[in-house]
Every structure is written in structure tokens, then in C-alpha cells.
Amino acid sequence: MKKLSTIVFSLLMMVACSQEHPKNYLTLSGKLENNKDSILSIATRQGILKKIKINKEGAFKDTLKLESAKGEIYTLQLSNKAAPIFLKNGYNIVLNGNADEFMTSFKFSGEGASNSNFVLAQIAKSQTIGNPQDILNLEESAFRKKVALLKFEYDSILNSYKNLDSTLYASVKQQNEQLVTYFNNAYAQTQIMGVGKPSPKFENYIDIKGGKKSLDSFKGSFVYIDVWATWCGPCIQQIPYLQSLEKEYHNKNIAFVSISTDESQRSGGSWEAAEKKWRDFVQKRNMTGVQLWSGQDFSFQQAYQINGIPRFILVDTEGNIVDANAPRPSDPALKTLLNSLGI
After folding, report:
1. For residues 156 and 50, what is the distance between their CA atoms, to the nearest angstrom?
2. Nearest 5°: phi and psi at 84?
3. N or C: the chain end with fewer CB closer than 10 Å?
4. Could you report how far apart the first and last alpha carbons of the chain are, in Å?
5. 124-160 per-position pLDDT tens digit
6. For the purposes of burial, counting CB atoms within 10 Å of the CB of 161, is it exposed (0-12), middle (13-18) or buried (19 or more)?
């Protein structure tokens, strides 16, 4: 589950706002205490838009002409640090902060500054909420109260900032409604696929060692499932970590099951070619654990609503869900989880 701060920031970055301003450029100035960098960059998702020089005292000032007449959220970058800023032609924004406390120390002032201060307040609030899964694990009445409280708090932050760009206000107002929808949908899914619920089953998946395997084949053991494909870069990156994990938990009461979803569309329209690609890859990489191929049966993936891979799932000895979106092998949280189960 993604952190709520990530969800909120991603939604905010999609916001583009408002009416054309009389001036066709903006001014950004300010000072960063404890600064050791000489350049402050303004970036978009496409790359660096502007580099602003910072003097030895940490002060900077420059102008920037944006191609779009609409206001948007951009990214301020200093070395490996980043923070959002809302910019629009005509604004005259002053930023003061501490380079050692990038973003959390930022205070914006001047024309248009309220928008950036609001965005930071919205993100700061989201960072206090913790893991959304903890909310989804609540009983229904407590869950409804918690989500209603979150909606009220986010709306209160929005309404406490005056002179916000009108389209930014409308967009975030809608975003707050979407947050409720997100939680309601996730909660409904948790009731079906939550901790302790019976796991959807895969049946008769081809085993590279011969024969076929089903989830029931591993009854009595915990099962850590890796849903992957040979063409998936992030999947391949996890293989060494998974192999290391398998060695560490060898002879423990857990089966490591990798399910390849390689299909015909990426193999010239041939299912035979897809199976061969999987077999060749597993053998070349000397992949350990239980190696299965789903073939043309995607019911297991559909039941878990897997829209992106790799996806990791942990099932208990009775075939019930421990974590429908388990930590990756590279995540230390996985060992903590496995050890907590006494594996």
C-alpha cells in the first residue's frame, strides 16, 4: 500500500490551474540557511526548466517565463532534495527556509505564495496519518468515522488558505472527494481480500520441474507468491533478493512460489513461444524456488486485481491471506513480517 502522502502528492501534481495573469513572467527569490549548493533548479516531469544561482549566503533571485498561462505545481530541487512549488506568470514569490530541513522549513511569501504554502500544508497533513492499511483494518463504524474526519481535516486546510488560485481550489476540493472514494473502494476490497480471508486459488499451473501445481499443493506451509514476467525490469531486479531469501529460509515452513505471466502477445502471438521464453529465462538465471507458468489462465491475477508487476502475496498455512500486497524481497519489512509469524 502506498503511503497516503505519496497518494496526495501525486494527485496534487496533476492539478493545473487558472486564468491568465497580466504579466508574462514570474519572480522567485529568497534565502536558504545552511546551504551548500550553488544551484536551485525548477523542474517538471520532463526535466529541468530553470537553474537559479545561489550565492555564498544562500540568497537567490531570478525571473522565469512559463510557456503556459496556467498555474501549475513544479518541483524545486537542491542536490537530491525536492519540494513542490506552485508557479504562474505574474507571481512574485519569496522563499525562506533551511537547506537541512528542505520543504518542512519552507515559508513562502509575496504574490501567489498562498498556493505553495497550501500544497505544503496538505502534504504535511498526509504525513501524519501513517499507513492507510491501518485505517482499512478498522471495524466499519470506526472506519466511516475516520474517513469522515480525514475529509473534514483536508477541507479545513483547504478553506483556511485565502486567495488560492480558483482552479487549484476546485481541483483539490474534488481531490478530497476522491480520497473518500479511494478509501471506500479499498475498504470494500479489503472485506473480500483482507487479512484472514480465504485466498483466491490458482490451479494446475505448469511447474518447470514437471507436472502442475495449485495453491492447495502447498497446504500446511506459508506461501510467498511472486507474480512476475520475463519482460518486467522491476521483476528481474527482485530476483537476486528473492534467491537470497530462499536460501535464508531453506527448510523453514514456507514455500517461495514464482508465477510467470508471460503470454502470447509479447511472444509473436504464440503461447508455445511464451512458455519457451519463460523456461529459457528460468534456466539461464538458475532461478530457485517453485517456478510456475500461468499459461492462458489469468483468473488468479484477476481475482487479486493485479494491474502491475511484480506483485507479492503472502498466504498462511490454511490458505488464508496474510498480506495481499506483501513487501518485496528487497524490503527489510518482509523479513520482519516472516519472523513475526514464527517462520
Report:
1. 34
2. -80, 150
3. N
4. 23
5. 999 998 888 889 889 999 999 999 999 999 999 999 9
6. middle
Residue 176's pLDDT is 94
Q: How many Å apart are CA 150 and CA 142, to the nearest integer? A: 12
Amino acid at 210: G
Residue 9: its pLDDT value, please?
57
Q: Rounded to a whole number, what is the largest CA-CA distance in the chain?
A: 72
Residue-wise pLDDT for 216-230, tens only, equals: 999 999 999 999 999
Backbone torsions φ then ψ of 293, nearest 5 degrees = -125, 130
Give the Å distances, CA to CA, from 188 to 13, 201, 326: 27, 20, 19
Q: Does domain 205-340 have CATH number 3.40.30.10?
A: yes
- Beta carbons of 118 and 158 less than 8 angstroms apart: yes
Q: 0.70 exceeded by the pTM?
A: no
User: CA-CA distance, 228 to 208, in Å (whole number)?
Assistant: 15
Residues 6+ apart with CB under 8 A from 183: 132, 135, 136, 143, 147, 150
| Residue type present at position 126 | S
Domain layout of the chain by residue ranges: 4-188, 205-340
Please name the amino acid found at residue 331: D
Question: How many helices and strands (H and E) does the chain possess?
Answer: 9, 16
Separation between Cα atoms, residue 291 and residue 294, nearest integer Å? 10
Check: CB of residue 255 under 8 Å from CB of residue 221: yes
Q: Could you tell me which of 256, 258, 136 has the C-alpha nearest to residue 195?
A: 136
